[in-house]
């Protein structure tokens, strides 16, 4: 019971302190819609917003999770408030799950904003909501743990922001969001297949377009393995670098 209360208290504190702030809204919601508007303005032919819906959802999830988590954990580590959390009556694994669960939750909610807007304005047809929901949750989880990986690797807040963009912006061009994987240079395709977000985009293509470029089971498998690896690797780094 004490562990559950500690988990809930950490999650509630993070939600009130960090995730209801303007940066999460601007990066997770406004930025994807601004990107979509630019895409429509530059397009010379009429486009259906449903064609780029997987991209909008991915941008909302990716930027909504990594923009906050990598900064907040670095900030707490810098201000030594993270060390006080280590006194909570829970294991380090459960503590980090509590610290990341807020980002996963808000990343998932951010992912549903473009879907809701598209459904209200344009309508959605032939959509597999089950695959879409699981895909968004997995994508939010792996994006959160990418943010955790970044937070553990740096010491300063500005380093976390710079390092986040170093990962995020190449990923959105290499994961098949706006350029199909088949349209990328052959030398870049292995890098695209090494990015976990690529498989999240493929899941969303299955959900909203009915087909993807890879097998559905492979998308689930790679995302699950990536989640376990990123979390375990980050946890090991925390034990090595932050615990004396």
Describe the structure in your own words.
The protein is 77% helix and 0% strand. The chain is built from ten helices and no strands. It has helices at 2-19, 22-42, 53-78, 81-85, 92-121, 129-153, 157-174, 189-193, 196-209, 216-241. It is mainly α and 244 residues long. The model has no long low-confidence stretch (mean pLDDT 81). The protein starts with a helix and ends with a helix. It has one domain (2-241). The protein is globular. The longest helix has 30 residues, at 92-121.
The pLDDT mean sits at: 81
Number of domains: 1
Biggest β-sheet strands, sense, barrel:
none
The residue fraction in helices comes out at: over 70%
User: Which class do the helix and strand fractions yield?
Assistant: mainly alpha
Assign an overall shape: globular
What count of helical segments does DSSP give? 10
Rg is: 18 Å
Q: Count the strands?
A: 0
Name its key features.
244 residues, 10 helices, 77% helix, 0% strand
Quick summary:
By secondary structure, the chain is an all-alpha fold. It is built from 10 helices and no strands.
What's the helix and strand layout?
Elements: H1 2-19, H2 22-42, H3 53-78, H4 81-85, H5 92-121, H6 129-153, H7 157-174, H8 189-193, H9 196-209, H10 216-241
Helix pairs in contact: 1-5, 2-3, 2-5, 3-5, 3-6, 3-7, 3-9, 5-6, 6-9, 6-10, 9-10
